[in-house]
DNA sequence: CGTAATGTTGACTCTCATCAAGTTCTGTGG
DNA sequence: CCACAGAACTTGATGAGAGTCAACATTACG
């Protein structure tokens, strides 16, 4: 959507982001191995990212290691574009992830030219805010089962209701997104399976078929 | 800050907001009794508000009545300015509250003229987002005591570290903001008092003196 | 194919919610 | 200004939902 218009050419690059810093590339493709940090909390907001394939988690940590994942970013999603000079959270690749990278400055310059630029930026921030508002309701007031049901429906929605929902993230990631423990997430999935709301497809527990979206939605009070 | 520049004149008006709808006032003052709704979830975003005195809570409800308060707005704060056509949550006066009201349209028009306008708007949304990000960490991962300590420090900070912290909101409001019950909030306050981190001033439990801000900050892991 | 990572399940614990009683505070009317 | 009623707050007893600890199963991956 947004970045796509500012992408005259893209060439694959290997190595860490720092390798890009000295170059004058306008926009290029990049690859992160699973678990790799894309940027850290407090780092300068020098680049803007769009996912081509894979998934990214953004999170905050407490001093003793407790983690809260703000959001998962999926193919097509943009992230890392913030108003301030430094990132307010950390971004990591959940799985092997390909990303399109643009310099923040050049993006903002391009934006200033077009009238739609500023409003695209605003729309992006607003969408994030809206998601955060809904997530606060979930974290503050929903039960474990409601949270997991809401999570599955959110992902299903964002992936366009595929027959098989392929989760890129682990139970621990889901737990840290939903404010639960991985055991509780696992139990909730088992409960929902017992209620015939979902089933696991194939060998792995990362592939889920939603059998009863309406039933799941009822949990999502 | 923002609205102040767009306030050629203001006159006090009584009665409900609807009374304003037909009028051609550019900006005026308004009063809400405690517990009164300023706007509801789903209503059109026709006005923008700035608090002169009092306090406002914004919240979302689940179908069975569970409530999550997103934020409290205090004197000087703006609220109700959203990107979309309808409000995503409800706003209510916590106590008797005086508010400055502007038509959204006229504010946005004024903004378009100035270069600073769009960035003020963006700054507002960004601050809200930043607050929401921190609050998700609190709701997802902090203990009851940590939440209450964080709440007191947040309010203390926003009110400019007064000797006496006067809470405009009830224990229930605090609970619904922190994702707890009112009993748990009450107990946490008692615990902190037992630890000499705070004391109640005068007759009421709404007036708190923070005796050990450093100690409270340590809870805020 | 074997080892490490991930996921499930069970037993038990603990924090916070619920229920309930009593106290304190506030606002209103006499 | 005081008395009263309702709201707000505190505190205690108990319970439930989710966390912790642990064992085991399954899957992924070199």
Automatic annotation (TrEMBL), chains A, B:
<dbReference type="InterPro" id="IPR036388">
    <property type="entry name" value="WH-like_DNA-bd_sf"/>
</dbReference>
<keyword id="KW-0804">Transcription</keyword>
<dbReference type="GO" id="GO:0003677">
    <property type="term" value="F:DNA binding"/>
</dbReference>
<dbReference type="InterPro" id="IPR036390">
    <property type="entry name" value="WH_DNA-bd_sf"/>
</dbReference>
<keyword id="KW-0535">Nitrogen fixation</keyword>
<protein>
    <submittedName>
        <fullName>Transcriptional regulator</fullName>
    </submittedName>
</protein>
<dbReference type="InterPro" id="IPR000595">
    <property type="entry name" value="cNMP-bd_dom"/>
</dbReference>
<feature type="domain" description="HTH crp-type">
    <location>
        <begin position="142"/>
        <end position="214"/>
    </location>
</feature>
<dbReference type="InterPro" id="IPR050397">
    <property type="entry name" value="Env_Response_Regulators"/>
</dbReference>
<dbReference type="InterPro" id="IPR014710">
    <property type="entry name" value="RmlC-like_jellyroll"/>
</dbReference>
<dbReference type="Pfam" id="PF00027">
    <property type="entry name" value="cNMP_binding"/>
</dbReference>
<dbReference type="InterPro" id="IPR012318">
    <property type="entry name" value="HTH_CRP"/>
</dbReference>
<keyword id="KW-0238">DNA-binding</keyword>
<dbReference type="GO" id="GO:0005829">
    <property type="term" value="C:cytosol"/>
</dbReference>
<dbReference type="InterPro" id="IPR018490">
    <property type="entry name" value="cNMP-bd_dom_sf"/>
</dbReference>
<dbReference type="GO" id="GO:0003700">
    <property type="term" value="F:DNA-binding transcription factor activity"/>
</dbReference>
<feature type="domain" description="Cyclic nucleotide-binding">
    <location>
        <begin position="32"/>
        <end position="80"/>
    </location>
</feature>
<dbReference type="Pfam" id="PF13545">
    <property type="entry name" value="HTH_Crp_2"/>
</dbReference>
<keyword id="KW-0805">Transcription regulation</keyword>
């Amino acid at each position: 959507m947004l970045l796509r218009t500012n992408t005259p050419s893209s060439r694959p690059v290997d190595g860490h982001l720092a390798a890009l810093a000295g170059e004058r590339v306008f926009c290029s493709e990049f690859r992160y191995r699973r678990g790799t940090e894309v940027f850290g909390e407090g780092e300068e907001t020098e680049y803007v990212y769009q996912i081509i394939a894979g998934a990214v988690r953004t999170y905050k940590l407490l001093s003793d290691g407790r983690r809260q994942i703000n959001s998962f970013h999926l193919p097509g999603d943009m992230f890392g574009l913030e108003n301030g000079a430094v990132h307010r959270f950390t971004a990591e690749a959940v799985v092997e992830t390909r990303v399109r990278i643009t310099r923040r400055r050049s993006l903002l310059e391009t934006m200033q030219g077009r009238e739609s630029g500023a409003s695209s930026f605003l729309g992006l921030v607003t969408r994030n805010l809206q998601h955060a508002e809904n997530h606060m309701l979930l974290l503050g007031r929903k039960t474990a089962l409601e949270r997991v049901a809401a999570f599955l429906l959110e992902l299903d929605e964002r992936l366009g209701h595929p027959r098989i929902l392929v989760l890129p993230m682990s139970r621990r990631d889901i737990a840290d997104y939903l404010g639960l423990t991985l055991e509780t997430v696992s139990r909730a999935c088992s409960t929902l399976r017992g209620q015939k709301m979902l089933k696991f497809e194939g060998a792995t527990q990362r592939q889920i078929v939603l059998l009863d979206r309406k039933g799941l939605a009822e949990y999502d009070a």
